[in-house]
Amino acid sequence: MDEIRKNFHNDLESVRAEVIRLGASLTESIPRATAVLLSGDLEGADYLVQADDEFDGRSAELEVSCFEILALQAPVAADLRQIVAIIKIAGELERSADLVVNICKAARRIYGHDIDPMLRGVISKMSEQAQKLFAATMEAFEESDSAKAAAIDDMDSYLDSLHRQFIQQIFESHSKSKIDLQVAVQLAVVARFYERIGDHAVNVSEKTRFIVSGWVRERGGIDRYKARVGDRTGEIFLPRTES
Amino acid sequence: MDLIFFLTGSAVTAVIAFLISKRSSKNLSKAIQNEALVSTSNTEDQLESLMDALDLLPIGVVVVDLKLGRKLRNNAAAAMTGVRYVDILVDQAVDEMLETIVTSKSSERILEAVAGTTRFFKIRGQAIDQQKVIVTVEDITEKSRIDTVQTDFVANLSHELKTPIGAVAALADSLNGETETEVVWRLAERIVTESHRMSRIVDDLLDLSRVEFGGTEEWSDVDLGSVLVEAVGTNQHAAKRQGLGLSLTGSAELLVRGDRSQLVSVISNLVDNAIKYSEAGGVVRVEGMIQGDEVVVTVTDHGIGIAERDQKRIFERFYRVDKARSRATGGTGLGLSIVRHIVLEHGGSIDVRSEEGIGSTFMVRLPRVTKQNKETVLDQTGALA
Lengths: 243, 385
Description:
The complex is a heterodimer. Chain A is an all-alpha fold. Helices cover 81% and strands 0% of the residues of chain A.
Protein backbone atom coordinates (compact mmCIF):
# COMPACT_ATOMS: atom_id res chain seq x y z
CA MET A 1 0.00 0.00 0.00
CA ASP A 2 1.20 3.48 -0.84
CA GLU A 3 2.64 4.86 2.38
CA ILE A 4 1.39 8.41 1.65
CA ARG A 5 -2.22 7.22 1.41
CA LYS A 6 -1.98 4.84 4.38
CA ASN A 7 -4.07 7.01 6.71
CA PHE A 8 -6.63 7.54 4.03
CA HIS A 9 -6.97 3.83 3.39
CA ASN A 10 -7.20 3.13 7.12
CA ASP A 11 -10.01 5.70 7.38
CA LEU A 12 -11.77 4.14 4.41
CA GLU A 13 -11.43 0.68 5.93
CA SER A 14 -12.85 1.84 9.26
CA VAL A 15 -15.96 3.40 7.69
CA ARG A 16 -16.47 0.18 5.72
CA ALA A 17 -16.13 -1.82 8.95
CA GLU A 18 -18.70 0.41 10.64
CA VAL A 19 -21.17 -0.12 7.77
CA ILE A 20 -20.72 -3.88 8.18
CA ARG A 21 -21.28 -3.64 11.93
CA LEU A 22 -24.37 -1.48 11.60
CA GLY A 23 -25.68 -3.93 9.00
CA ALA A 24 -25.12 -6.85 11.39
CA SER A 25 -26.97 -5.07 14.23
CA LEU A 26 -29.84 -4.34 11.91
CA THR A 27 -30.02 -7.90 10.54
CA GLU A 28 -30.11 -9.25 14.08
CA SER A 29 -32.80 -6.81 15.19
CA ILE A 30 -35.33 -8.01 12.58
CA PRO A 31 -36.11 -11.45 14.16
CA ARG A 32 -35.96 -9.79 17.58
CA ALA A 33 -38.71 -7.35 16.63
CA THR A 34 -40.77 -10.22 15.20
CA ALA A 35 -40.45 -12.17 18.46
CA VAL A 36 -41.53 -9.03 20.34
CA LEU A 37 -44.57 -8.71 18.07
CA LEU A 38 -45.63 -12.37 18.17
CA SER A 39 -45.14 -12.84 21.90
CA GLY A 40 -46.39 -9.40 23.02
CA ASP A 41 -43.11 -8.77 24.81
CA LEU A 42 -43.40 -5.14 25.96
CA GLU A 43 -40.04 -5.16 27.72
CA GLY A 44 -38.33 -6.37 24.54
CA ALA A 45 -40.16 -3.65 22.59
CA ASP A 46 -38.82 -0.94 24.94
CA TYR A 47 -35.32 -2.34 24.62
CA LEU A 48 -35.38 -2.21 20.82
CA VAL A 49 -36.96 1.26 20.73
CA GLN A 50 -34.20 2.60 22.99
CA ALA A 51 -31.44 0.77 21.10
CA ASP A 52 -32.47 2.73 18.00
CA ASP A 53 -31.09 5.97 19.49
CA GLU A 54 -27.64 4.41 19.55
CA PHE A 55 -28.11 3.18 15.99
CA ASP A 56 -29.11 6.69 14.84
CA GLY A 57 -26.07 8.17 16.59
CA ARG A 58 -23.73 5.67 15.00
CA SER A 59 -25.08 6.15 11.50
CA ALA A 60 -24.84 9.96 11.89
CA GLU A 61 -21.22 9.59 13.02
CA LEU A 62 -20.56 7.36 10.04
CA GLU A 63 -21.82 10.07 7.70
CA VAL A 64 -19.64 12.68 9.41
CA SER A 65 -16.59 10.40 9.00
CA CYS A 66 -17.39 10.13 5.29
CA PHE A 67 -17.70 13.92 4.94
CA GLU A 68 -14.32 14.31 6.65
CA ILE A 69 -12.72 11.86 4.24
CA LEU A 70 -14.26 13.71 1.30
CA ALA A 71 -13.06 17.08 2.59
CA LEU A 72 -9.59 16.09 3.77
CA GLN A 73 -8.57 13.33 1.38
CA ALA A 74 -10.36 14.28 -1.86
CA PRO A 75 -10.81 10.65 -2.99
CA VAL A 76 -11.19 9.82 -6.68
CA ALA A 77 -12.57 6.99 -8.85
CA ALA A 78 -13.45 3.80 -6.94
CA ASP A 79 -12.63 5.42 -3.58
CA LEU A 80 -14.94 8.31 -4.33
CA ARG A 81 -17.73 5.92 -5.36
CA GLN A 82 -17.17 4.02 -2.13
CA ILE A 83 -17.55 7.10 0.08
CA VAL A 84 -20.53 8.51 -1.79
CA ALA A 85 -22.25 5.09 -1.66
CA ILE A 86 -21.55 4.66 2.06
CA ILE A 87 -23.17 8.04 2.82
CA LYS A 88 -26.29 6.79 1.06
CA ILE A 89 -26.11 3.31 2.65
CA ALA A 90 -25.92 4.93 6.11
CA GLY A 91 -29.28 6.55 5.38
CA GLU A 92 -30.81 3.28 4.16
CA LEU A 93 -29.66 1.41 7.28
CA GLU A 94 -30.91 4.15 9.59
CA ARG A 95 -34.32 4.15 7.89
CA SER A 96 -34.54 0.33 8.07
CA ALA A 97 -33.74 0.42 11.79
CA ASP A 98 -36.60 2.91 12.19
CA LEU A 99 -38.92 0.40 10.50
CA VAL A 100 -37.82 -2.26 13.00
CA VAL A 101 -38.74 0.19 15.77
CA ASN A 102 -42.10 0.77 14.09
CA ILE A 103 -42.78 -2.99 14.27
CA CYS A 104 -42.13 -2.84 18.03
CA LYS A 105 -44.43 0.15 18.40
CA ALA A 106 -47.17 -1.73 16.55
CA ALA A 107 -46.59 -4.64 18.97
CA ARG A 108 -47.38 -2.25 21.82
CA ARG A 109 -50.58 -1.09 20.12
CA ILE A 110 -51.96 -4.58 19.58
CA TYR A 111 -50.82 -5.83 22.98
CA GLY A 112 -53.37 -8.19 24.50
CA HIS A 113 -55.02 -9.10 21.19
CA ASP A 114 -54.62 -12.59 19.77
CA ILE A 115 -53.19 -12.90 16.28
CA ASP A 116 -54.76 -15.52 14.01
CA PRO A 117 -52.27 -18.47 13.63
CA MET A 118 -52.49 -18.17 9.85
CA LEU A 119 -51.31 -14.54 10.08
CA ARG A 120 -48.59 -15.43 12.59
CA GLY A 121 -47.24 -17.97 10.12
CA VAL A 122 -46.97 -15.40 7.31
CA ILE A 123 -45.44 -12.78 9.67
CA SER A 124 -42.71 -15.30 10.62
CA LYS A 125 -42.02 -15.98 6.95
CA MET A 126 -41.84 -12.27 6.07
CA SER A 127 -39.46 -11.63 8.95
CA GLU A 128 -37.25 -14.54 7.93
CA GLN A 129 -37.13 -13.34 4.33
CA ALA A 130 -36.40 -9.71 5.32
CA GLN A 131 -33.58 -10.94 7.54
CA LYS A 132 -32.18 -13.19 4.80
CA LEU A 133 -32.26 -10.26 2.37
CA PHE A 134 -30.29 -8.01 4.70
CA ALA A 135 -27.81 -10.75 5.62
CA ALA A 136 -27.15 -11.41 1.91
CA THR A 137 -27.01 -7.69 1.13
CA MET A 138 -24.40 -7.04 3.81
CA GLU A 139 -22.37 -10.06 2.69
CA ALA A 140 -22.39 -8.73 -0.86
CA PHE A 141 -21.17 -5.35 0.45
CA GLU A 142 -18.46 -6.93 2.60
CA GLU A 143 -17.20 -9.12 -0.22
CA SER A 144 -17.74 -6.42 -2.90
CA ASP A 145 -19.67 -9.11 -4.75
CA SER A 146 -21.58 -7.45 -7.53
CA ALA A 147 -23.31 -10.67 -8.69
CA LYS A 148 -24.66 -11.42 -5.22
CA ALA A 149 -25.83 -7.82 -4.91
CA ALA A 150 -27.67 -8.14 -8.23
CA ALA A 151 -29.54 -11.22 -6.93
CA ILE A 152 -31.08 -9.29 -4.01
CA ASP A 153 -33.74 -7.74 -6.22
CA ASP A 154 -35.07 -11.20 -7.15
CA MET A 155 -35.04 -12.30 -3.52
CA ASP A 156 -37.10 -9.23 -2.70
CA SER A 157 -39.91 -10.25 -5.05
CA TYR A 158 -40.66 -13.24 -2.77
CA LEU A 159 -41.03 -10.82 0.15
CA ASP A 160 -43.36 -8.70 -1.97
CA SER A 161 -45.50 -11.73 -2.78
CA LEU A 162 -45.65 -12.65 0.94
CA HIS A 163 -46.82 -9.09 1.60
CA ARG A 164 -49.66 -9.48 -0.90
CA GLN A 165 -50.55 -12.90 0.54
CA PHE A 166 -50.62 -11.39 4.05
CA ILE A 167 -53.00 -8.58 3.07
CA GLN A 168 -55.30 -11.16 1.43
CA GLN A 169 -55.14 -13.24 4.62
CA ILE A 170 -56.09 -10.20 6.73
CA PHE A 171 -59.23 -9.71 4.62
CA GLU A 172 -60.14 -13.38 5.03
CA SER A 173 -59.55 -13.38 8.80
CA HIS A 174 -61.53 -10.18 9.14
CA SER A 175 -64.47 -11.49 7.12
CA LYS A 176 -64.57 -14.59 9.36
CA SER A 177 -64.60 -12.19 12.37
CA LYS A 178 -61.40 -13.77 13.62
CA ILE A 179 -59.70 -10.41 13.94
CA ASP A 180 -60.50 -6.89 15.25
CA LEU A 181 -60.52 -4.05 12.74
CA GLN A 182 -57.93 -2.21 14.84
CA VAL A 183 -55.59 -5.22 14.90
CA ALA A 184 -56.19 -5.83 11.19
CA VAL A 185 -55.11 -2.28 10.34
CA GLN A 186 -52.04 -2.45 12.58
CA LEU A 187 -50.98 -5.78 11.08
CA ALA A 188 -51.42 -4.49 7.53
CA VAL A 189 -49.08 -1.64 8.43
CA VAL A 190 -46.60 -4.08 10.03
CA ALA A 191 -46.54 -6.14 6.83
CA ARG A 192 -45.73 -2.95 4.94
CA PHE A 193 -42.77 -2.35 7.31
CA TYR A 194 -41.25 -5.73 6.44
CA GLU A 195 -41.82 -5.09 2.77
CA ARG A 196 -40.11 -1.69 3.06
CA ILE A 197 -37.14 -3.23 4.91
CA GLY A 198 -36.74 -5.50 1.88
CA ASP A 199 -36.79 -2.48 -0.44
CA HIS A 200 -34.05 -0.79 1.60
CA ALA A 201 -31.96 -3.96 1.31
CA VAL A 202 -32.36 -3.76 -2.47
CA ASN A 203 -31.24 -0.10 -2.37
CA VAL A 204 -28.14 -1.01 -0.35
CA SER A 205 -27.28 -3.80 -2.80
CA GLU A 206 -27.62 -1.33 -5.69
CA LYS A 207 -25.08 0.90 -3.96
CA THR A 208 -22.74 -2.11 -3.71
CA ARG A 209 -23.04 -2.60 -7.46
CA PHE A 210 -22.30 1.11 -7.88
CA ILE A 211 -19.15 0.79 -5.75
CA VAL A 212 -17.87 -2.23 -7.67
CA SER A 213 -18.62 -1.16 -11.24
CA GLY A 214 -20.21 2.27 -11.25
CA TRP A 215 -23.54 0.68 -12.19
CA VAL A 216 -26.65 2.84 -11.75
CA ARG A 217 -30.25 1.73 -11.97
CA GLU A 218 -32.08 2.68 -15.15
CA ARG A 219 -34.26 5.59 -14.30
CA GLY A 220 -37.50 5.18 -16.20
CA GLY A 221 -38.85 8.48 -14.88
CA ILE A 222 -35.92 10.54 -16.20
CA ASP A 223 -36.15 8.87 -19.61
CA ARG A 224 -39.87 9.61 -19.82
CA TYR A 225 -39.25 13.22 -18.80
CA LYS A 226 -36.56 13.63 -21.44
CA ALA A 227 -38.77 12.09 -24.10
CA ARG A 228 -41.54 14.55 -23.19
CA VAL A 229 -39.52 17.77 -23.15
CA GLY A 230 -36.69 16.71 -25.46
CA ASP A 231 -33.18 16.12 -24.23
CA ARG A 232 -31.98 19.60 -23.31
CA THR A 233 -29.06 18.57 -21.14
CA GLY A 234 -26.54 21.39 -21.27
CA GLU A 235 -29.05 23.97 -22.49
CA ILE A 236 -30.78 24.30 -19.21
CA PHE A 237 -28.59 27.10 -17.88
CA LEU A 238 -28.31 29.00 -21.17
CA PRO A 239 -30.26 32.26 -21.42
CA ARG A 240 -33.25 31.91 -23.73
CA THR A 241 -33.45 34.26 -26.64
CA GLU A 242 -36.66 34.97 -28.49
CA SER A 243 -36.21 34.67 -32.23
CA MET B 1 19.17 -0.19 10.66
CA ASP B 2 15.73 -1.74 10.87
CA LEU B 3 17.26 -5.18 11.28
CA ILE B 4 18.78 -4.27 14.64
CA PHE B 5 15.34 -3.70 16.15
CA PHE B 6 14.31 -7.23 15.29
CA LEU B 7 17.37 -8.86 16.87
CA THR B 8 16.56 -11.15 19.71
CA GLY B 9 18.65 -11.65 22.83
CA SER B 10 20.75 -14.48 21.41
CA ALA B 11 21.51 -12.53 18.25
CA VAL B 12 22.76 -9.62 20.33
CA THR B 13 24.99 -12.01 22.28
CA ALA B 14 26.37 -13.31 18.98
CA VAL B 15 27.15 -9.74 17.87
CA ILE B 16 29.02 -9.08 21.10
CA ALA B 17 30.95 -12.36 20.76
CA PHE B 18 31.95 -11.46 17.25
CA LEU B 19 32.99 -7.96 18.27
CA ILE B 20 35.20 -9.40 20.97
CA SER B 21 36.91 -11.81 18.59
CA LYS B 22 37.34 -8.88 16.12
CA ARG B 23 36.47 -10.83 13.03
CA SER B 24 36.05 -9.14 9.69
CA SER B 25 32.99 -6.92 9.30
CA LYS B 26 31.82 -8.97 6.30
CA ASN B 27 31.69 -12.16 8.35
CA LEU B 28 30.05 -10.30 11.16
CA SER B 29 27.08 -9.08 9.14
CA LYS B 30 26.58 -12.56 7.65
CA ALA B 31 26.63 -14.11 11.11
CA ILE B 32 24.11 -11.58 12.39
CA GLN B 33 21.79 -12.38 9.54
CA ASN B 34 22.06 -16.13 10.10
CA GLU B 35 21.47 -15.85 13.82
CA ALA B 36 18.55 -13.48 13.29
CA LEU B 37 16.98 -15.89 10.80
CA VAL B 38 17.32 -18.85 13.14
CA SER B 39 15.82 -17.03 16.11
CA THR B 40 13.00 -15.53 14.04
CA SER B 41 12.05 -18.92 12.70
CA ASN B 42 12.20 -20.36 16.23
CA THR B 43 9.80 -17.71 17.51
CA GLU B 44 7.56 -18.21 14.51
CA ASP B 45 7.57 -21.98 15.02
CA GLN B 46 6.61 -21.52 18.65
CA LEU B 47 3.91 -19.06 17.73
CA GLU B 48 2.60 -21.38 15.06
CA SER B 49 2.38 -24.40 17.36
CA LEU B 50 0.76 -22.21 20.00
CA MET B 51 -1.82 -21.03 17.47
CA ASP B 52 -2.40 -24.64 16.33
CA ALA B 53 -3.14 -25.55 19.93
CA LEU B 54 -5.43 -22.54 20.38
CA ASP B 55 -7.27 -23.41 17.17
CA LEU B 56 -8.33 -26.72 18.71
CA LEU B 57 -10.07 -25.00 21.62
CA PRO B 58 -13.86 -24.82 21.43
CA ILE B 59 -13.83 -21.30 22.89
CA GLY B 60 -12.77 -18.20 21.03
CA VAL B 61 -9.46 -16.66 22.14
CA VAL B 62 -8.28 -13.20 21.08
CA VAL B 63 -4.89 -11.93 22.24
CA VAL B 64 -4.17 -8.28 21.63
CA ASP B 65 -0.97 -6.32 21.87
CA LEU B 66 -2.25 -2.79 22.38
CA LYS B 67 1.10 -1.15 21.74
CA LEU B 68 1.83 -2.92 18.47
CA GLY B 69 -1.84 -2.88 17.55
CA ARG B 70 -1.61 -6.58 16.74
CA LYS B 71 -4.50 -8.96 17.22
CA LEU B 72 -4.24 -12.76 17.20
CA ARG B 73 -7.35 -14.86 17.14
CA ASN B 74 -7.90 -18.59 17.04
CA ASN B 75 -10.28 -20.33 14.61
CA ALA B 76 -13.21 -20.31 17.01
CA ALA B 77 -12.87 -16.56 17.52
CA ALA B 78 -12.59 -15.89 13.79
CA ALA B 79 -15.86 -17.69 13.04
CA MET B 80 -17.76 -18.26 16.24
CA THR B 81 -21.14 -19.15 14.81
CA GLY B 82 -20.87 -19.61 11.07
CA VAL B 83 -23.58 -16.95 10.74
CA ARG B 84 -21.75 -13.93 9.38
CA TYR B 85 -23.77 -11.16 11.02
CA VAL B 86 -23.62 -12.84 14.43
CA ASP B 87 -19.85 -13.25 14.06
CA ILE B 88 -19.62 -9.52 13.35
CA LEU B 89 -21.64 -8.74 16.49
CA VAL B 90 -19.41 -11.03 18.59
CA ASP B 91 -16.36 -9.33 17.08
CA GLN B 92 -17.77 -5.93 17.94
CA ALA B 93 -18.40 -7.04 21.54
CA VAL B 94 -14.77 -8.23 21.75
CA ASP B 95 -13.56 -4.80 20.57
CA GLU B 96 -15.78 -3.05 23.10
CA MET B 97 -14.36 -5.34 25.77
CA LEU B 98 -10.82 -4.29 24.76
CA GLU B 99 -11.76 -0.67 25.38
CA THR B 100 -13.03 -1.38 28.88
CA ILE B 101 -10.00 -3.52 29.75
CA VAL B 102 -7.74 -0.50 29.29
CA THR B 103 -9.40 1.13 32.31
CA SER B 104 -10.41 -1.91 34.38
CA LYS B 105 -8.20 -5.00 34.54
CA SER B 106 -10.85 -7.59 33.90
CA SER B 107 -14.39 -7.54 32.66
CA GLU B 108 -17.20 -9.91 31.71
CA ARG B 109 -20.45 -9.63 29.80
CA ILE B 110 -23.10 -11.80 28.20
CA LEU B 111 -23.99 -11.11 24.59
CA GLU B 112 -27.38 -12.18 23.32
CA ALA B 113 -27.86 -12.56 19.58
CA VAL B 114 -30.78 -13.88 17.56
CA ALA B 115 -29.81 -16.21 14.71
CA GLY B 116 -32.82 -18.42 14.12
CA THR B 117 -32.89 -19.05 17.84
CA THR B 118 -31.45 -16.84 20.54
CA ARG B 119 -27.82 -17.57 21.32
CA PHE B 120 -25.79 -16.49 24.32
CA PHE B 121 -22.08 -15.76 24.47
CA LYS B 122 -19.99 -15.13 27.54
CA ILE B 123 -17.21 -12.67 26.74
CA ARG B 124 -14.42 -12.31 29.28
CA GLY B 125 -11.50 -9.90 29.09
CA GLN B 126 -8.35 -9.98 31.21
CA ALA B 127 -5.24 -7.79 31.10
CA ILE B 128 -2.06 -9.89 30.89
CA ASP B 129 0.22 -6.91 31.48
CA GLN B 130 0.27 -3.20 30.64
CA GLN B 131 0.11 -3.88 26.92
CA LYS B 132 -1.39 -7.28 26.36
CA VAL B 133 -4.99 -8.29 26.78
CA ILE B 134 -6.69 -11.64 26.34
CA VAL B 135 -10.40 -11.95 25.54
CA THR B 136 -12.25 -15.26 25.50
CA VAL B 137 -15.62 -15.91 23.90
CA GLU B 138 -17.68 -18.90 24.96
CA ASP B 139 -20.96 -20.04 23.42
CA ILE B 140 -23.12 -20.71 26.49
CA THR B 141 -26.41 -21.20 24.62
CA GLU B 142 -26.75 -24.87 25.55
CA LYS B 143 -25.76 -24.25 29.16
CA SER B 144 -28.29 -21.47 29.61
CA ARG B 145 -30.94 -23.61 27.89
CA ILE B 146 -30.38 -26.38 30.44
CA ASP B 147 -30.51 -23.84 33.26
CA THR B 148 -33.83 -22.53 31.97
CA VAL B 149 -35.26 -26.04 31.59
CA GLN B 150 -34.30 -26.88 35.18
CA THR B 151 -35.68 -23.73 36.76
CA ASP B 152 -38.81 -23.95 34.61
CA PHE B 153 -39.33 -27.58 35.63
CA VAL B 154 -39.19 -26.84 39.35
CA ALA B 155 -41.37 -23.76 38.98
CA ASN B 156 -43.90 -25.59 36.79
CA LEU B 157 -44.06 -28.69 38.96
CA SER B 158 -44.76 -26.66 42.08
CA HIS B 159 -47.29 -24.57 40.20
CA GLU B 160 -49.07 -27.57 38.63
CA LEU B 161 -49.40 -29.35 41.98
CA LYS B 162 -49.96 -26.28 44.10
CA THR B 163 -53.01 -25.16 42.12
CA PRO B 164 -55.13 -28.31 42.72
CA ILE B 165 -53.84 -28.67 46.30
CA GLY B 166 -54.82 -25.08 47.06
CA ALA B 167 -58.21 -25.67 45.46
CA VAL B 168 -58.82 -28.86 47.46
CA ALA B 169 -57.87 -27.10 50.70
CA ALA B 170 -60.19 -24.18 49.98
CA LEU B 171 -63.05 -26.48 48.92
CA ALA B 172 -62.62 -28.68 52.02
CA ASP B 173 -62.61 -25.55 54.15
CA SER B 174 -65.92 -24.42 52.65
CA LEU B 175 -67.29 -27.94 53.07
CA ASN B 176 -66.54 -27.80 56.77
CA GLY B 177 -69.76 -26.69 58.49
CA GLU B 178 -71.79 -26.58 55.25
CA THR B 179 -75.24 -28.03 55.78
CA GLU B 180 -77.02 -27.50 52.50
CA THR B 181 -76.90 -30.83 50.66
CA GLU B 182 -76.70 -29.41 47.16
CA VAL B 183 -73.70 -27.19 48.02
CA VAL B 184 -71.99 -30.09 49.81
CA TRP B 185 -72.55 -32.25 46.75
CA ARG B 186 -71.14 -29.59 44.41
CA LEU B 187 -68.09 -28.95 46.58
CA ALA B 188 -67.40 -32.68 46.90
CA GLU B 189 -67.63 -33.02 43.12
CA ARG B 190 -65.04 -30.26 42.67
CA ILE B 191 -62.73 -31.91 45.22
CA VAL B 192 -62.93 -35.16 43.24
CA THR B 193 -62.11 -33.34 39.98
CA GLU B 194 -59.10 -31.56 41.48
CA SER B 195 -57.85 -34.79 43.11
CA HIS B 196 -58.08 -36.57 39.76
CA ARG B 197 -56.04 -33.82 38.20
CA MET B 198 -53.35 -34.18 40.84
CA SER B 199 -53.35 -37.93 40.51
CA ARG B 200 -53.01 -37.63 36.69
CA ILE B 201 -49.95 -35.41 37.09
CA VAL B 202 -48.37 -37.78 39.62
CA ASP B 203 -49.18 -40.79 37.37
CA ASP B 204 -47.58 -39.07 34.40
CA LEU B 205 -44.51 -38.17 36.45
CA LEU B 206 -44.21 -41.78 37.60
CA ASP B 207 -44.62 -42.98 34.02
CA LEU B 208 -41.90 -40.63 32.96
CA SER B 209 -39.47 -41.77 35.64
CA ARG B 210 -40.31 -45.40 34.82
CA VAL B 211 -39.44 -44.77 31.20
CA GLU B 212 -36.32 -42.82 32.17
CA PHE B 213 -34.99 -45.56 34.41
CA GLY B 214 -36.83 -48.45 32.77
CA GLY B 215 -35.21 -51.61 31.52
CA THR B 216 -35.83 -53.61 28.38
CA GLU B 217 -36.68 -56.97 30.03
CA GLU B 218 -40.29 -57.00 28.96
CA TRP B 219 -39.59 -56.16 25.35
CA SER B 220 -40.90 -58.30 22.54
CA ASP B 221 -41.43 -58.01 18.77
CA VAL B 222 -44.38 -55.67 18.35
CA ASP B 223 -46.48 -55.22 15.23
CA LEU B 224 -46.71 -51.45 15.06
CA GLY B 225 -49.68 -51.78 12.68
CA SER B 226 -51.83 -53.15 15.49
CA VAL B 227 -50.45 -50.47 17.83
CA LEU B 228 -51.65 -47.80 15.37
CA VAL B 229 -55.10 -49.43 15.13
CA GLU B 230 -55.44 -49.50 18.92
CA ALA B 231 -54.21 -45.92 19.43
CA VAL B 232 -56.49 -44.56 16.70
CA GLY B 233 -59.41 -46.63 18.03
CA THR B 234 -59.18 -45.16 21.53
CA ASN B 235 -59.20 -41.63 20.10
CA GLN B 236 -62.01 -42.16 17.58
CA HIS B 237 -64.65 -40.97 20.00
CA ALA B 238 -62.80 -37.78 20.95
CA ALA B 239 -62.27 -36.95 17.26
CA LYS B 240 -65.94 -37.44 16.49
CA ARG B 241 -66.97 -35.25 19.41
CA GLN B 242 -64.78 -32.45 18.02
CA GLY B 243 -66.13 -32.87 14.48
CA LEU B 244 -62.86 -34.20 13.12
CA GLY B 245 -62.01 -36.98 10.71
CA LEU B 246 -59.39 -39.49 11.83
CA SER B 247 -57.71 -41.56 9.12
CA LEU B 248 -55.20 -44.38 9.34
CA THR B 249 -53.05 -45.78 6.56
CA GLY B 250 -50.31 -48.30 7.08
CA SER B 251 -48.38 -51.02 5.34
CA ALA B 252 -48.01 -54.56 6.60
CA GLU B 253 -45.08 -55.92 8.61
CA LEU B 254 -44.28 -52.82 10.62
CA LEU B 255 -42.29 -54.86 13.12
CA VAL B 256 -40.32 -53.19 15.90
CA ARG B 257 -38.86 -54.38 19.18
CA GLY B 258 -40.15 -52.82 22.37
CA ASP B 259 -42.82 -52.47 25.02
CA ARG B 260 -46.23 -52.65 23.34
CA SER B 261 -48.18 -50.65 25.92
CA GLN B 262 -45.59 -47.88 25.90
CA LEU B 263 -45.70 -47.70 22.12
CA VAL B 264 -49.51 -47.48 22.20
CA SER B 265 -49.19 -44.59 24.63
CA VAL B 266 -46.74 -42.80 22.26
CA ILE B 267 -49.10 -42.90 19.28
CA SER B 268 -52.17 -42.27 21.40
CA ASN B 269 -50.56 -39.19 22.96
CA LEU B 270 -49.66 -37.77 19.55
CA VAL B 271 -53.15 -38.40 18.14
CA ASP B 272 -54.73 -36.93 21.28
CA ASN B 273 -52.65 -33.74 20.85
CA ALA B 274 -53.47 -33.51 17.15
CA ILE B 275 -57.18 -33.67 18.00
CA LYS B 276 -56.91 -31.11 20.81
CA TYR B 277 -55.26 -28.50 18.64
CA SER B 278 -57.41 -28.94 15.53
CA GLU B 279 -60.58 -27.12 14.62
CA ALA B 280 -63.84 -28.79 13.61
CA GLY B 281 -64.00 -29.98 10.02
CA GLY B 282 -60.34 -30.94 9.81
CA VAL B 283 -58.73 -34.34 9.41
CA VAL B 284 -56.03 -35.97 11.53
CA ARG B 285 -53.96 -38.42 9.49
CA VAL B 286 -51.94 -41.26 10.98
CA GLU B 287 -49.61 -43.05 8.62
CA GLY B 288 -47.23 -45.95 9.15
CA MET B 289 -44.59 -46.89 6.59
CA ILE B 290 -41.24 -48.55 6.09
CA GLN B 291 -38.23 -46.42 5.15
CA GLY B 292 -35.07 -48.50 4.83
CA ASP B 293 -34.21 -49.94 8.23
CA GLU B 294 -36.81 -47.88 9.99
CA VAL B 295 -40.51 -47.90 10.67
CA VAL B 296 -41.82 -44.35 10.35
CA VAL B 297 -45.09 -43.16 11.83
CA THR B 298 -46.41 -39.68 11.05
CA VAL B 299 -49.30 -37.94 12.77
CA THR B 300 -50.45 -34.91 10.78
CA ASP B 301 -53.01 -32.30 11.67
CA HIS B 302 -54.21 -29.03 10.13
CA GLY B 303 -54.51 -27.26 13.45
CA ILE B 304 -53.06 -24.05 14.84
CA GLY B 305 -49.43 -25.15 14.45
CA ILE B 306 -46.43 -24.46 16.67
CA ALA B 307 -44.18 -21.41 16.37
CA GLU B 308 -40.57 -22.19 15.49
CA ARG B 309 -39.19 -20.93 18.82
CA ASP B 310 -41.50 -23.35 20.69
CA GLN B 311 -40.78 -26.39 18.51
CA LYS B 312 -37.56 -27.21 20.33
CA ARG B 313 -39.10 -26.85 23.76
CA ILE B 314 -42.40 -28.73 23.48
CA PHE B 315 -40.75 -31.99 24.53
CA GLU B 316 -39.73 -30.51 27.88
CA ARG B 317 -41.64 -31.45 30.98
CA PHE B 318 -44.48 -28.98 31.67
CA TYR B 319 -43.55 -26.73 28.76
CA ARG B 320 -46.69 -25.18 27.33
CA VAL B 321 -46.94 -23.09 24.20
CA ASP B 322 -50.19 -21.48 25.24
CA LYS B 323 -50.79 -21.91 28.95
CA ALA B 324 -54.45 -20.91 28.95
CA ARG B 325 -55.33 -23.21 26.07
CA SER B 326 -53.53 -26.31 27.38
CA ARG B 327 -55.17 -25.98 30.76
CA ALA B 328 -58.56 -25.67 29.11
CA THR B 329 -57.92 -28.89 27.19
CA GLY B 330 -56.98 -30.66 30.45
CA GLY B 331 -53.38 -31.60 29.64
CA THR B 332 -50.83 -32.27 32.35
CA GLY B 333 -47.96 -30.82 30.31
CA LEU B 334 -46.08 -34.11 30.45
CA GLY B 335 -47.45 -35.97 27.41
CA LEU B 336 -44.83 -35.06 24.83
CA SER B 337 -41.89 -35.49 27.18
CA ILE B 338 -43.11 -39.02 27.96
CA VAL B 339 -43.48 -39.66 24.22
CA ARG B 340 -39.95 -38.50 23.53
CA HIS B 341 -38.46 -40.57 26.34
CA ILE B 342 -40.19 -43.73 25.17
CA VAL B 343 -39.11 -43.20 21.57
CA LEU B 344 -35.49 -42.53 22.57
CA GLU B 345 -35.55 -45.55 24.89
CA HIS B 346 -36.61 -47.65 21.87
CA GLY B 347 -33.59 -46.42 19.91
CA GLY B 348 -35.72 -44.15 17.75
CA SER B 349 -36.16 -40.43 17.19
CA ILE B 350 -39.01 -37.95 17.09
CA ASP B 351 -39.26 -34.80 15.01
CA VAL B 352 -41.81 -32.12 14.53
CA ARG B 353 -42.45 -30.04 11.45
CA SER B 354 -44.93 -27.28 11.94
CA GLU B 355 -46.06 -23.96 10.62
CA GLU B 356 -48.38 -21.62 12.43
CA GLY B 357 -51.82 -21.59 10.89
CA ILE B 358 -51.00 -24.53 8.59
CA GLY B 359 -50.64 -27.46 10.99
CA SER B 360 -48.12 -29.87 12.47
CA THR B 361 -46.60 -33.23 11.60
CA PHE B 362 -44.96 -35.36 14.27
CA MET B 363 -42.69 -38.05 12.87
CA VAL B 364 -41.58 -41.03 14.94
CA ARG B 365 -38.79 -43.25 13.63
CA LEU B 366 -38.12 -46.63 15.19
CA PRO B 367 -35.56 -49.29 14.21
CA ARG B 368 -37.28 -52.00 12.19
CA VAL B 369 -37.01 -55.69 13.01
CA THR B 370 -36.33 -57.65 9.83
CA LYS B 371 -35.97 -61.42 9.47
CA GLN B 372 -32.24 -61.01 9.09
CA ASN B 373 -31.56 -59.07 12.26
CA LYS B 374 -34.07 -61.23 14.09
CA GLU B 375 -31.86 -64.24 13.34
CA THR B 376 -28.83 -62.35 14.59
CA VAL B 377 -30.65 -61.68 17.85
CA LEU B 378 -31.52 -65.39 18.15
CA ASP B 379 -27.94 -66.37 17.40
CA GLN B 380 -26.69 -64.09 20.10
CA THR B 381 -29.19 -65.51 22.58
CA GLY B 382 -28.09 -69.02 21.61
CA ALA B 383 -24.48 -68.12 22.08
CA LEU B 384 -25.23 -66.70 25.50
CA ALA B 385 -27.10 -69.86 26.51
